[in-house]
Amino acid sequence: LSSGKDDIDRKITSAMEKLINIQRMLLWDKAKKEGLSPIQIQILTYLNGYPKELCRVSDLAVEFDLTKATVSDTVSTLINKDLLVRGPGIDDRRSHTLALTHEGKVMVRRISKWTDTIQKKIALLNEDDKSRIMLFLMQLIKSLHDDGVINTARLCIACDNFEKNIHPGDDRPHRCGFTGKLMSDRELTIGCAYCKTGKN
Ligand code: SF4
Predict the structure, then answer these.
(1) What confidence score (pLDDT) does residue 134 get?
(2) Strand order in the sheet with 162-163
(3) CA dist 22 → 17, 65, 101 (Å)
(4) 157 CB less than 6 Å from ligand 1?
(5) Who's near 26: CB < 8 A, 6+ residues apart?
């Protein structure tokens, strides 16, 4: 028999696994309807949200923990579907940046709805629960990043630019050293293009 603590640890892990499976199912469903694979959807969504200096094959390989060869194949397929184009490199001419075509942007608008099913349920939670859950998930991602399980965190709390609680007691006690912006807990960022962690 497991102890109470072990039991709740296992239940949280099982609940997260179930959510991951539900998310995968929703993504597959959307992918099938649009004639795309799940990784093609994730790459299009990523390229829609990040600045061009983070839109090279090597950036995608790090973000999705794939080999450059796998990413290159996927990118070629998306180019053949007229959803992506290769642009010039930024400092390294050999390394092209990738950009969405008009058709690619229209596609992203359609596929971005795949997360709505879960997001609508989250919207029903009370605000304190939402903040607690958000901070818990950010901490969990950060610790997995610290342990080297994932390559990128893209979170304020994992970022070298993050100045935690520099104004204790204020509504916005934290500061981004990169932009100078003050932040409350709720305003902590996930998916920030400028996150710097010593590993990236
Ligand atoms: S650079 Fe981005 S991730 Fe880092 S502290 Fe600033 S907003 Fe947060």
Answers:
(1) 96
(2) 162-163, 174-176, 182-183
(3) 9, 21, 30
(4) no
(5) 114, 115, 117, 118
With cut-offs at 50, 70 and 90, classify the pLDDT of residue 151: confident
CB-CB contact of 200 with 152 (8 Å): yes
3-state secondary structure 132-178: HHHHHHHHHHHHHHHCCCCCCCCEHHHCCCEECCCCCCCCCCEEECC
Contact 105, 87 (CB under 8 A): no
* 163 within 8 A of 123, measured Cβ to Cβ: no
Ligand 1 pocket mutation pick from 174, 179, 181, 182 by most atoms within 8 angstroms of CB: 179
- Name the token pair of 86: 């290769």
Look at residue 176 in the predicted model and tell me its pLDDT: 97
User: Smallest Cα–Cα separation from 44: which of 12, 14, 9, 85?
Assistant: 85
Which pLDDT value is given to residue 92? Answer: 57
SS (H, E, C) 32-70: HHHCCCHHHHHHHHHHHHCCHHHCEHHHHHHHHCCCHHH
- DSSP character for 98? E
Is the C-beta atom of 189 inside 6 A of ligand 1?
yes
Testing ligand 1's pocket by substitution, the residue of 142, 184, 189, 190 carrying the most ligand atoms inside 8 A of its CB is: 189
Q: Amino acid letter at 60?
A: L
